Amino acid sequence: MSAITDRQRPLVEASNIRKSFGHLEVLKGIDMVVEQGTVSCLLGPSGSGKSTFLRCINHLEKVNSGRLLVDGELIGYRQRGNKLYEMKEREVVAQRQKIGMVFQRFNLFPHMTALENVMEAPVLVHKENRAVVEERARRLLDRVGLGNRVNNFPSQLSGGQQQRVAIARALAMEPKLMLFDEPTSALDPELVGEVLDVMKELAETGMTMIVVTHEINFAKEVGDKVVFMDDGYVVETGTPEQVLGNPQEARTKSFLSKVL
Fold it and tell me: Which pLDDT score, from 0 to 100, does residue 248 have?
């Protein structure tokens, strides 16, 4: 495949993704394309399937049917003929290394400093040289505004600072794709801006990002694409101007009227 074709290929391609938990169908045939170097913001009411879809992208949740490709590679499964076979866990772990994820809760190791939290995965998983990783980790913590907090433990950091450490930790694995699952929802209102600023800066560098968020202004300012989901379906997709400024679907209009 030529380099030009590689660049033109979407980074994420989701086709007819379905996911159920027992008898409850949460995703009901999701189709989505995410171009390289773009920011896609997923909006919608609680329970619409946004976070579940995000977790399917890195196989934290296994899809019941459909196909999910990241960088042209089928995630979590191998295809032989017309059948899909689930990969071994170590193969899935290897795929996940190109996909960074930031959760609502920061999930930092409480017994490790900010620097140690950021260094852990590259050293442990990638077996990278510790000195090389430390230099990168210090650079990343500096980038998220925490260069002076490298030796602080999570308990010594605010929620916003912890979330910025979590972003640096995800970036330390040098991913091709960053997933954010409501990264500011657990934060006090005055701390939200500092995390969104880091995400804006990340978008400006050309990182491909999929963001589940209730921050409408962030979606308007930073998003290249806004996807409105409800009840397990993609209801409406378009630019922020189209979806937020001139929604076509009644469900989108109703949702926006409540949150704007």
Answer: 97
